[in-house]
Amino acid sequence: MSDAVDLPLIGAAARRARAASRVLRTLPTDVKDAALSAMADALVERTDEVLAANALDVDAAAADGTPASVLDRLRLDAGRVAGVAAALRELVALPDPVGDVVRGSRLPNGLELRQVRVPFGVIGIVYEARPNVTVDAAGLCLKSGNAALLRGSASAYRTNAALVAVLAEAGQKAGLPEGSVELLPADRASVGELLSARGHVDLVIPRGGASLIQRVVREAQVPVIETGVGNCHVYVDASADAAMAEAIVLNSKTHRVSVCNSAETLLVHRDVPFLPRLLAALADAGVTLHGDPAVVEMAARAAHDAVVPATDEDWATEYLSMDMAVRVVDDLPQALEHIARWGSGHSEAIVADSASAIAAFTAGVDAAAVLVNASTRFTDGGEFGFGAEIGISTQKLHARGPLGLPELTSTTYVVTGSGHTR
Amino acid sequence: MSDAVDLPLIGAAARRARAASRVLRTLPTDVKDAALSAMADALVERTDEVLAANALDVDAAAADGTPASVLDRLRLDAGRVAGVAAALRELVALPDPVGDVVRGSRLPNGLELRQVRVPFGVIGIVYEARPNVTVDAAGLCLKSGNAALLRGSASAYRTNAALVAVLAEAGQKAGLPEGSVELLPADRASVGELLSARGHVDLVIPRGGASLIQRVVREAQVPVIETGVGNCHVYVDASADAAMAEAIVLNSKTHRVSVCNSAETLLVHRDVPFLPRLLAALADAGVTLHGDPAVVEMAARAAHDAVVPATDEDWATEYLSMDMAVRVVDDLPQALEHIARWGSGHSEAIVADSASAIAAFTAGVDAAAVLVNASTRFTDGGEFGFGAEIGISTQKLHARGPLGLPELTSTTYVVTGSGHTR
């Protein structure tokens, strides 16, 4: 039952997507897979067209003084186009979640009960100036039987429009209904329309930084999945092996600083004897340490200049940079208390050899992922073997952690009788 | 990471509940089960105290001119108190979902991956003047390891306060932490606080009529599960058996008219020869029929006076009464179109003997439950064998259909390595 919502900017696209979704939910896997292959082929064939559109976006962004790192994410080349095409082909190899029977039984009265995976219907994706998301998100939505309403950044609009034109044309030739992939206008107001479009969109997933996600969560009247804010901790227990702790802390912090599963705060048990060495290793790797008083004092004794005093702001910050907050805790409960207060529920790691400490940490941490003697960087759909992910959920409803294809589906109970009444 | 939210009415209770939730998530099943048994015993022992409080609420409501049907739902007696106590004891027998391993594997690099069920944390329940919900909801939340923030109707406040006092005291004696069950003030503004309490409450479930649910969905900044609005259809295909169709339509409509899984609209294929008989059976059962022109004409020929002309309003209405809208459709796609436009995604039934019609209906309907040759009344946690339900979800995110104990949990990925880095 669609609520009456006025959607001047996105209404036409949303109606095409809804109509498409009613066909998509019934398509067999081989039709969807053939369409994904055809889309991948078309992207490669029409690379020049995509790159020409992208050059206009990149030039305009550069003229606006856009920072180099943002320009780099916006810029496509033949290799990157081939990369997104290859990602579509990888989806072909993954199992189709639609039609999976999640549970089934025969009830005592003879009714056959089956809970079956079905597509959501229409999924909206709101994202920033990364054109690869356009193709990735469209592919994931289609493989799971959903129509995609894509709302990318204005600065990538020409690129996204070229990509969607290629995808839609190839998809329709291969048997997908019109409206399966729709690019929404990049007007500022189109996000608001999407978030209010009850009955028109079944799920919205924001992919981007904290401010985008906060806006989506606060404004949305449609169901959303929060993704990607990671204020992740590594706790080094008194029982930890020194070399393992050093390797995991360094990897969690420095392997790739700009991603949500990198660590931001190090919590160290006060009985850990090798903290000075750990701090030195981080400093040597180029990490600026924001320390509590115990850490600052230790650094002063060791004449480190890589330590600055931490404030509450540091415990709360997702640096996404070569910075790390460091606190010495009295015991494991204090570490759990710190994580409960400051963590974002993404990934929390413990380095320990004590089974009871590991059990207490695992039971006590409330997060999408708990990593035991492993780097926080492992919280990832690819690393988990999901084959593809549309983001990492930090909410508890529906799906937590990496979102693969099954997480892009809902379920229906199919109850089959032979004239059963109550 | 709790957002800063000002909660003058519910803040203290919410903080106690959060503290309790951190203990509840680690409690073994036997402690929770012992507490549920103790609560059941205490309710029976302290029935007089509960009934005294209830009498005050009932008298005040009666003096306010509250309708008899509402008074009946509000009123407790010794039998009803024993009934809610028995429902708590039934929860003891159900499996604890917490700790279930949803999936698990060893990754190629040797990491052990397990997805484990964990409690949500703090669950808010907003409901109307039905004191049994206080006990049912508290029991379901506790068994699944969650603290419960209960926001019942002002008219039942004294009853609810007495019930929660009994539950909390018995629970704490049996080892539950303080704050496991909290009754919120019944001030009008307390619902708004609950719905805005990001970081304090992990999930809110409204239990009540359409207007309550709409308010919750529109205002909520916290995750919610929509429950219980059911504009359910029965479609009678040309291939249907006459007797089966009559039994299922009558049962779906008249077995209990005030509940969400009762049918509101009958869709009949134009080639069904027994429509006059079906309409007569409904009329004989006391159902007022709201018919499309074909039905009105048929009724005029048969001199029925139980048929009034239907408008779009009728297709949209969840009557919850002895009324039924009736439409003759040209074919199954037209029935699917009608359901897509007017249905609420709750329960949709088909009566048919044609396997292809059944397959097309099952694939084409987007609802929590599709019933094949069975009454819509079977969409129910008890009927499905879940043992208990907190409501029937009509949303696609997280859980669809009857919500049992597993639906009151989230999951955590536990990743165990031996010093793994990327």
Automatic annotation (TrEMBL), chains A, B:
Location(s) in or outside the cell: Cytoplasm
Reaction(s) this enzyme catalyzes, per UniProt: L-glutamate 5-semialdehyde + phosphate + NADP(+) = L-glutamyl 5-phosphate + NADPH + H(+)
Domain of life from the UniProt record: Bacteria
Pathway: Amino-acid biosynthesis; L-proline biosynthesis; L-glutamate 5-semialdehyde from L-glutamate: step 2/2
InterPro entries: Ald_DH/histidinol_DH (IPR016161), Ald_DH_C (IPR016163), Ald_DH_N (IPR016162), Aldehyde_DH_dom (IPR015590), G-glutamylP_reductase_CS (IPR020593), Glu-5-SA_DH (IPR012134), GPR_dom (IPR000965)
One record GO biological process: L-proline biosynthetic process
One Pfam family named in its UniProt record: Aldedh
SUPFAM superfamilies listed in its UniProt record: ALDH-like (SSF53720)
Known EC number: 1.2.1.41
Family (UniProt): Belongs to the gamma-glutamyl phosphate reductase family.
Function summary: Catalyzes the NADPH-dependent reduction of L-glutamate 5-phosphate into L-glutamate 5-semialdehyde and phosphate. The product spontaneously undergoes cyclization to form 1-pyrroline-5-carboxylate.
Protein name: Gamma-glutamyl phosphate reductase
High-level lineage: Bacteria, Bacillati, Actinomycetota, Actinomycetes, Geodermatophilales
